[in-house]
Amino acid sequence: MSTTATRPRRNIADLRPGELIDYQVFRVVSKELRTASNGALYLHAVLADATGQLVARMWNTSAELYETIPESGFLLCRGRTEHYGGKLQFIIDGLRAAEPGSFDPAELLPSTTADVEAMWKEVKSILRQIKNPSLLALVGRFINDESFASSFKRAPAAVALHHAWLGGLLEHTLSTLRLARVVCPLYPEVDQDLVLAGLFLHDAGKTRELAYDTSISYTSEGQLVGHITQAVLWIRQKCAEIEAQAGQPFPRDVETALQHIILSHHGKHEFGSPRLPATPEAVMVHYLDNLDAKLSMMFEAIHNDPDAASEWTAYVKALETRVFKTRLPPPAQAGRRGDPPVAS
Question: Looking at the structure, do residues 63 and 152 belong to the same domain, yes or no?
Answer without folding.
Answer: no
